[in-house]
Design brief:
The protein is α/β, with parallel strands linked by helices. The chain is 28% helix and 20% strand. The radius of gyration is 22 Å and the shape is globular. It comes from Sorbaria sorbifolia.
Length: 313
């Protein structure tokens, strides 16, 4: 959804501004152009040692890094006909916490251990002088691990974390007893502690990953100035995190658009390409083609309105 769009478009725009940019995400599929770096790291997750591998490709100035582990790859459409977050809509995988713990622990390793030389301007590992952007609840543990595992050892001393909220409705709420899974010291319990009136997934006290991500990061941002206002406007719009966000403050930066991907002069999905000089000739023809394709009356004088959004309660 929106997060995928941002992760697709924002990093190349940052790279074009001269930054060295890496994205880290789970390897959910056998991406045909992402190659095995043969770099393995061992992580301690819930009392077990888990080994992850990094896959990598370099596209449009961005190092795309994928964390490889069976908990990600065994769930994808291609292999099991399954979905990313759960077996069906509204139901979560039981091991979602372990899956995203793995992502949050692997992510800070990547800039240190990967020796990447595909960029003509930068070479070698990224090192420790970096800014992490953690997106949504799935990566909310990253600032917690930086604070408790890395910084006490003198690693990532000057690194900062910005936490970006794409959709406040998904917060990563789990039973309070699950705090022990996270391998974090008790001093962070307060940042996760959350009480709500719902019986899902359990009644009463919970941990809330997003609450911790907001509190433990250096800066909180979201996808538009208007959404930033909305999140602090009340309990319903901030989905019970409005008080926390009021405490930390939040900046709204409007989501941009990938002008390369959405360029009508080169768009492979358009039968007739156009630019600002030919738009008035091309659009009526494209409208007729769309009307024909979806079985509407073909008439270039009827307005056609497109809406991209979330059909969800």
């Amino acid at each position: 959804g929106g997060l995928g769009d941002v992760l697709g478009g924002l990093p190349p725009a940052m790279a074009a501004n001269g930054h060295r940019v890496m994205t880290v995400s789970p390897r959910y599929d056998q991406y045909k152009d992402a190659w095995d770096t043969s770099v393995l790291v061992e992580l301690e997750v819930n009392g077990r040692t888990e080994s992850v591998r990094f896959f990598h490709c370099h596209k449009r100035g961005v190092d795309r890094v994928f964390v490889d582990h069976p908990v990600f790859l065994e769930r994808v459409w291609g292999k099991t006909g399954s979905k990313i977050y759960g077996p069906r809509a509204g139901e979560d995988y039981k091991d979602n916490q372990l899956r995203f713990i793995l992502l949050c622990q692997a992510a800070p390793e990547a800039p240190r251990v990967l020796n990447l030389n595909s960029n003509e301007y930068f070479s070698g590992p990224y090192g420790e002088d970096v800014v992490f952007i953690a997106n949504d609840w799935h990566s909310a543990l990253l600032p917690c691990y930086l604070k408790t595992i890395y910084k006490p050892k003198g690693i990532y001393k000057s690194a900062k974390v910005a936490f970006c909220i794409h959709n406040i409705a998904y917060q990563g709420r789990f039973p309070f007893s699950d705090f022990s899974l996270l391998d974090l010291p008790d001093q962070l319990k307060g940042s996760f502690d959350f009480l709500d009136g719902y019986n899902k997934p359990v009644k009463g006290r919970k941990i809330n990953w997003m609450k911790a991500g907001i509190l433990e990061s250096d800066k909180v941002v979201t996808v538009s100035p208007y959404y930033a206002q909305e999140l602090v406007s009340g309990e319903d719009k901030g989905v019970e995190l409005d008080n926390i966000i009021r405490t930390t403050g939040i900046s709204g930066i409007v989501n941009g658009m990938d002008v390369q991907e959405w360029n009508p002069a080169t768009d492979k999905y358009l039968d007739i390409k156009y630019d600002n000089t030919t738009v008035l000739d091309a659009k009526p023809l494209l409208k007729e083609a769309l009307q024909a394709e979806v079985g509407l009356p073909v008439d270039r004088n009827i307005p056609v309105i497109g809406f991209i959004g979330r059909l969800e309660e």
